[in-house]
Amino acid sequence: MSKKRIIILSVLLGIVTLLIILFGVVFCLRKIEISPLSAEEYPLYMYQINEKGNVDTDDNGKKIQINLTNDMILKAAGLKKGTPIFSVNKEKAKNNIEKTYPSLKVVQIRTVSAIGIEIKVRQRVGMYYMQVDTEFDSNIGFYVLDEELVILDKLGIGYDEEVKENYTKLVLSDDSVITRRPYYDKLSTTTIQNYSSNIFSAVCSAVTIKQEDGQFKVTNETGAKFIERDTYSKVINKITLSKVVVDDRFTEQAKNLYWVTMQIKDGENVRYIQIYRPDKDLLEKVNLSFSALSKLTEDNDVIVCTYQEGKIVLMQKSSV
Q1: pLDDT value at position 124?
Q2: Deepest in the core among 195, 224, 269, 291, taking most CB within 10 A?
Q3: Which of 158, 86, 168, 173 is nearest to 126 (CA)?
Q4: 152 exposed, middle or buried (CB, 10 Å; 0-12, 13-18, 19+)?
Q5: For residue 118, what are the β-bridge partners?
Q6: pLDDT at site 23
């Protein structure tokens, strides 16, 4: 081997060694920051669950809550300091946190520097309720769910007014067995969970409202506020997800095709929006449908959003 080749190989070896040192020593995980979102409004906690999947109560019958700290979340993530920063398994860390503390939603895990990552978490918040058949569980009348259909609370039949005031009713036409589910279980299928979550996100992203005389009204006026978590149920009273009815020959092809029906409290009026296929163009459909509410005629109270020749079209009809 010539002297020139030896020098070149030595230089290359030096560069490779330097890169290994940089990646192994400099670009390694040394700092993990937990960032709770909206923690003042929605503190991080979960109920203390016993072996039977029920919530433990104190001597006064009050449900026992465990306050979740940054250190507890950090430990649950299972991330090891010293791991090369580019090989940190963020998805595994997310799953670890949500499995250990299912009352939490991991919003994002991102790399913020050559040595650090940030984990953004928030408390899951009740947005929907589903009625439970008391024939199978006489102690439970309602499940309180977040937008991803995680069971956050169970309430007795005496809480009718409370759930109707604070949550949106959810009806799943093809989910008949929902009784005796443990706390923090997820109802229905991944498809339905995605639909319910995406509907919530689309409404909060597209629909603006104003408040008059203690009532909320859908409006497109300048300066109007978008629907948020605390006003969602004040406008969206009920959401029904129902499968599209097709000929038996096409059942398999249409198994994930659904209609979304929203019952809307628009001031003193009750309106309805029916959206075909929430899996496609949902944000645009929600935006168009709510914008068209003011154009309903006196005899009609339903906006139907569907397709004609591949294009989104709106129609109106009567619910009667």
Answers
A1: 98
A2: 195
A3: 168
A4: buried
A5: 33, 110
A6: 56
